[in-house]
Write a structure and sequence with these properties.
The chain is an alpha+beta fold. Helices cover 27% and strands 24% of the residues. The protein has a single domain, classed as Creatinase/methionine aminopeptidase superfamily (Creatine Amidinohydrolase, Alpha-Beta Complex). It starts with 9 loop residues before the first helix and ends in a 9-residue tail after the last strand.
Length: 260
């Protein structure tokens, strides 16, 4: 039986705004920390310190056994990179996924950022991945379906010859990090259409395109967490938590510096 979708009240959404702002702040801290010579563990430490000093809890820490506060994935790593001794170099692209729990609600967001001077290919991949989120936002309105979000991402991204990861998807967000419904970044086939609810006011979802410069096939490393492209191509990730309203969707993960 499919999990019920939790429709948020006005009070719930206010709580999610607070959590979302902190998650977005942590993402901005990570973005500013990306520099040649820094380790992924040091970036994670900056994220953890920001979240804790804000009175929140790093949602990812120990979630399913994950050992850090942020997922930090470099170059061909798509998602779930475990922070460690890996040193960031000029020309790398760094994907950071963060979550903050505050007042019983979760904010979840991600972004991919350049270290120094990156290739034109890498820059374009980052830009297309980010824009694909905003293409999806155009159909994140009452009356549309979850599949319309995926179709918008897929159509935009594949127009540039990029791949859309299939094994991992967006999701509902609220009092838990992962709630119903799942939010694919591609149009589901007919066998999956029964899990294709309409969007209604009060739904809060994380839309998170995970895009590859080459083939969309991925695999998990021996650490049982880090997902990489099979062909070694670059990957980018962009995510915000949003709320469906009567009109324009509201992005809940916006930081004070307005970088989203």
């Amino acid at each position: 039986m499919a999990e019920s979708i939790y429709i948020k009240s006005a009070k719930d959404i206010e709580g999610m705004r607070k959590a979302g702002k902190l998650a977005a702040g942590a993402r901005s801290v990570a973005r500013q920390a990306v520099a040649a010579g820094i380790t992924t563990r040091e970036i994670d430490r900056e994220v953890r310190n920001f979240i804790k000093k804000s009175g929140a809890y790093p949602t990812f820490y120990k979630y399913g056994g994950f050992p850090a506060s942020a997922c930090i994935s470099v170059n061909e790593e798509v998602i779930h990179g475990i922070p460690g001794n890996r040193i960031i170099h000029n020309g790398d692209i760094v994907s950071v996924d963060v979550g903050a729990t505050f007042g019983g609600f979760v904010g979840d967001c991600a972004g991919t950022y350049p270290c120094g001077t990156i290739s034109e290919e890498a820059r374009k991949l980052i830009d297309v991945t980010r824009q694909s989120f905003f293409e999806a936002l155009k159909v994140a309105r009452p009356g549309y379906r979850i599949s319309d979000i995926g179709a918008a991402v897929q159509e935009y991204v594949e127009g540039f010859g990029y791949g859309v990861v299939r094994e991992y998807v967006g999701h509902g967000v609220g009092r838990k990090l992962h709630e119903a419904p799942e939010v694919p970044n591609y149009r589901p086939d007919r066998r999956e259409r029964h899990m294709d609810p309409r969007l209604v006011k009060g739904m809060c979802i994380a839309i998170e395109p995970m895009i590859t410069a080459g083939d969309y096939a991925v695999r998990v490393l021996d650490n049982d967490w880090t997902v990489v492209t099979v062909d070694g191509s670059l990957a980018a990730h962009y995510e915000n938590t949003i709320c469906i309203t009567d009109g324009e969707p509201e992005i809940l993960t916006i930081a004070d510096d307005i970088y989203i």
